[in-house]
Write a structure and sequence with these properties.
With 340 residues, the protein is mainly alpha-helical. The chain has 16 helices and two strands. The longest helix has 27 residues. The protein is globular, with a radius of gyration of 21 Å.
Length: 340
Amino acid sequence: MVKLGWIILAAVAVAPLLGIGNYPLHLMIVALIWSYIYTSWAIMGRLGLVSFGHCAFLGIGAYSVVLAWNTLGWSPWFGGIVGIVATLAVAFLIGWPCFRFKIVGHYFAVVTLACAEIVRLIIMALRDQTGGSLGITPKPALADGATMSLSAMQFSSKVIWFYIALCVWLAGLVVWRWVDRSMSRIALLAISEEEEAAASIGIDISRVKMAIMLLSAGMTAFGGMLYAQYQSYINPETVSSLTVSLQIVFGVIAGGMFVMLGPTVGAIFLLALSETLRVVIGSQLRGIDQLIYGAMLILFIIYMPKGILGELLERFQVKPSSAPSTVLLKTMKETDTHGT
């Protein structure tokens, strides 16, 4: 299975060099960017911290980099850092009170949802700077036949964007694996199952939750920065609306929340579905795609809770990357035995 994964990765890496065309290459780039964003959400969501407000982090990252470039002339590299820092500050302001006062489950999801709406309303209110509902476009830096500007992070070649997106996606998988192998994941599994039991064995619940939330928020903000630079256009509906948050949740659940490549499969599935609906339905029935997403989300939760990749791995009896929680329960029992 590992060899097959390397073969697929190699095939994807050389695809742009085979002249596959700009539109298929565009779809691959978009799929990689959203795969990274979905992975960022799943790092937090699979451990019991379900957020409906990640579009807020995505929007802050996207708008920060564009506004810094358009109004202050700051390079997207510096503007991206500012956006990530701002995102971490917002995530801390949301997360710390929630974790400190044990606001969890559905209540935590509602708090994150409210945060997302606040960010969207702020973007709309600052229409003179953000363009409001009309959106905003980064000022072009390519002139006199130039094909790339590293300081402005603008490239005319989609091949360059493809390899940037591929590297970012791989980095997201590395972070997933790092979290998997760290004690933070075991601690959060304990917290998601029984907070009092986790606290009794010395786990700092608030600190561990906060660390994972900050990691997920920062990664999502970086994904927003990358999306804004590649698309060269953003508006509240594409980066900071409730629709975006629901698409993230749907994509991760559809692909498989507890498998490392599950969010990637979900992103590809959702992109293929949206393209199919665009061709079949077009723009004649506004909102029908969201209705279909919602219906499919319910069906996946009921009939395929492990997602597409999770179900396939189970059918072929392949062990997923995420260890089952029974390992954690065994560890807690052994700790309790030694303690007594």
